[in-house]
Amino acid sequence: MRVFGTFALTALLACGTSMPANAQKPAGPNATDAALGPMAATIRNRVGEWEVQAKLQFTPKTRPVVIHARATSRLLGDRWLITEFTDESRDPAMPSFAGLGVNGYDPDQRHYVGYWVDSSRGLAIPVTGEYDPKSGVFRTVSVERQRNGKSVTVVSETRSVDANTEQTTFTAPDADGRPFVRMQMTYTRAQPTR
Questions:
Q1: Close Cβ partners of 118 (under 8 Å, ≥ 6 residues apart)
Q2: pTM for the complete prediction?
């Protein structure tokens, strides 16, 4: 994602254009909340270090794999949540894994947008999301290219259990088109080291 950010900044500077009015940082006492959208408090709470346990199941017939990871989230310009994800499992049967997510609120489209990249694939995955304040569920949809070249739609739902715990479930269709849970993740705020 840093490459994309560098490319975008270079393109803006090279063209000598200014940023569109809606890309300017909002002014006023609730500027950060406006820039972060309807789930501003939740996004601000995500800033920090998190211990992650992920249960992966690539197809309904494969044995689930559990990995342990660390996620570090920070805000960029009070607008974008940047999350770096590093596998800490050290399972010799699994290749090492790292990922980077960039997510923010698009005020024109009135939904969340983002990208996910990771060390296992040579592609960026665009993500769109909606927040339901009544249920507290953040739901995203992404279309991912599989290794066989086919596309698959993945839906995730994230719920805050409490201020220090979030759970995310990723659902995708199996080979017959039936939905199955392919990943469940639990984020727990990391305790400060002493």
A1: 85, 97, 98, 99, 100
A2: 0.80
